[in-house]
Structures are given as C-alpha cells and as structure tokens.
Write a structure and sequence with these properties.
mainly alpha, globular
C-alpha cells in the first residue's frame, strides 16, 4: 500500500468505526486500481489477473469475520501500526 492510501485509511479511522472505514477504503482501492487497469488494459497479463482475483472474495469474507471478532480499539491499533511501518 502506498503512503497516500495508508494516510487515507488513517484519516478515515479518525471519523468512522473500523468496520465501516476498512471496507470503504477497500472499495476506494478497488475502483482506483480497476480504473487504472482498464486504462492500461493492453498491458494487463490476464493469467496473473485471474490468479490474483481468485482470492478476492474468499479472503474478503475471512477478513470480514476477523474484523467482526476483534474489538474496534484493536483494529484501530493494528491500522496505526501498519501506518507507522508504512512510513519507515
């Protein structure tokens, strides 16, 4: 994740609960990356795209259940640590 996206998530977590901010951030990332791929579609390697995409739904489901199991403070703390590590 580049620094601007981790900053966006950090700011969103200031105003939204993690169970709202994290999926919203994921949708923003998906739209951003999909539009970039559509514009540069001649350069997209379809077999790699299909292998990568195969795990999106199952891992999203796992992530949702994990996020529901954790308290909001733990999710915010994990996001803060990720932001700190991303800045290094």
């Amino acid at each position: 994740m580049d620094k601007s996206h981790s900053t966006l998530l950090a700011v969103m977590l200031l105003f939204l609960e993690p169970l709202a901010a994290i999926p919203l951030h994921g949708v923003i990332q998906l739209v951003s990356n999909s539009s970039r791929a559509a514009i540069q579609r001649r350069h997209v390697d379809l077999p790699i795209l299909l292998r990568y995409s195969a795990l999106l739904v199952p891992m999203g489901w796992v992530g949702l259940h994990l996020a529901n199991a954790l308290p909001a403070a733990a999710t915010r703390g994990a996001a803060a640590i990720a932001e700190y590590l991303d800045r290094k």
